[in-house]
Design a protein that fits this description.
Blueprint (H helix, E strand, L loop, with lengths): L2 E6 L3 H13 L6 E7 L3 E3 L4 H4 L11 E3 H4 L8 E5 L1 E6 L4 E6 L2 E6 L2 E4 L3 E3 L11 H17 L2 E5 L3 H14 L4 E5 L11 H13 L2 E4 L4 E6 L5 E5 L4 E4 L1 E4 L3 E3 L29 E3 L11 H19 L14 E5 L5 E5 L2 E3 L1 H7 L6 H8 L4
Parallel strand pairs: 1-2, 1-9, 2-5, 9-19, 11-12, 11-17, 12-13
Antiparallel strand pairs: 3-4, 6-7, 7-8, 10-18, 14-15, 15-16, 20-21, 21-22
Length: 371
């Protein structure tokens, strides 16, 4: 009888793992994959900073239906359950899912937790819930960007710099755009040369970069404008405020004993949830590595191979975390920067690699042609 591998999460880690497992199964009847996700479409959030600019993606290119990507599999091999996981019972090996205000129980033989993370302010730089909710939030943000005469972006990590860069490319000559960096430079987790390149390009695009400007509080006034109060006591008045810092794991359905104090799922060197026999966690929701697309990709590939090994009564292999930090980003449409360890990636290489924001991979992942 086929083993039912249940995967929670319809973003990169979950969808990739589902396709990898189905393509790697030794026989057509070896496994059935059940994907539990609130979003019917996979959202390519890597391109969300560019997506907030009205007109950049007019054909809904950032979303692709998941079900259609698995149409080659019969219902006894693949099933998608549209709903939100609200409970996990390890003893009975079941997941409770809320589907359209009703709850159902889904049994599993093996369980993969790939439910990802969300932004603290529910902004569409990550999935918000259903595809309709994420689409709506993105369109709403686009409308507010278009209407605003002044925009302040807070947080000068990768997302903040990419957002400010896209805004500068599109509106630098007609809107006042400010990027608030809490520290002495933007991109503090990258090389200093990366920070210098990004800062110069942002300034060229018309973005005002304010360093050592940490947001203490933001309020909306009676006129609809935002009042941003900095830790220094300075107040900035702006039409639109876009915070880009802070992620929270989507782990509310997981028993507390499996979570860190911050809500991330504790895993061992095999990506197995600590203290369990047949539950694994990968991607943003895991406590193993930082939230990064490439980390989720590595974890997905490793776990899929391990699960097949286990099904074939072979010993799984330990996952080796990369000890070399690496990161790349776009700064507007025509500039990019990045590093691998202490080596700066040449600007022309970073620009070329980030030109499309890897949007072409969305179809490859959902349909499985990438694997």
């Amino acid at each position: 009888m086929a083993k039912n591998i249940v995967i929670i999460g319809g973003s990169h880690a979950g969808v990739s793992t589902a396709q990898r497992l189905l393509k790697s199964a030794s026989t057509p009847t070896a496994i059935k994959v059940t994907l539990i996700t609130p979003n019917s479409h996979m959202y390519w959030n890597l391109a969300s900073p560019r997506g907030l600019i009205p007109g950049n993606y007019e054909k809904d290119e950032l979303f692709l239906e998941i079900k259609s990507g698995f149409k080659q599999y019969s219902s006894d091999r693949f099933e998608i359950v549209l709903g939100t996981a609200v409970g996990l019972d390890e003893a009975s090996q079941t997941v409770t899912v809320r589907c359209a205000e009703k709850e159902k129980s889904v049994a599993y033989d093996m369980l993969v937790l790939a439910s990802g993370s969300r932004t603290l302010d529910s902004s569409p730089f990550k999935n918000i819930g259903t595809t309709e909710e994420t689409r709506s939030a993105l369109k709403d943000l686009q409308a507010r960007v278009e209407a605003a005469k002044s925009i302040t972006v807070a947080g000068a990590g990768v997302t903040g710099v990419e957002v400010a860069g896209e805004l500068g490319s599109a509106f630098g000559k007609e809107k006042k755009i400010i990027l608030l960096a809490p520290g002495p430079r933007v991109l503090e987790d990258m090389l200093e040369v990366n920070s210098d390149i990004a800062t110069k390009e942002l300034q060229r695009l018309g973005v005002e970069v304010q360093l050592r400007s940490r947001v203490k509080e933001s309020v909306i006034g009676s006129n609809g404008q935002y009042e941003i109060i900095l830790s220094s006591g300075t107040t900035i008045t702006t039409d639109l405020y876009i915070p880009t810092f802070g992620l929270a794991p989507n782990s509310s359905y997981v028993p507390a004993k499996f979570l860190t104090s911050q809500g991330f799922i504790k895993v061992d060197e095999f990506l197995q949830v600590t203290g369990t026999k047949n539950i694994w966690a990968i991607g943003d929701v895991s406590d193993l590595e930082q939230s990064q697309w490439i980390k989720a990709e590595y974890q997905s590939a490793h776990l899929a191979k391990n699960l097949i090994k286990i099904l074939q009564n072979q010993a799984p292999q330990a996952y080796k975390k990369s000890t070399t930090p690496m990161m790349g980003l776009s700064v507007g449409k025509d500039m990019g920067t990045g590093h691998y360890g202490n080596w700066r990636i040449p600007t022309f290489v970073a620009r070329y690699l980030r030109k499309t924001l890897f949007l072409e991979k969305l179809t490859e992942i959902v349909t499985g042609t990438a694997f």
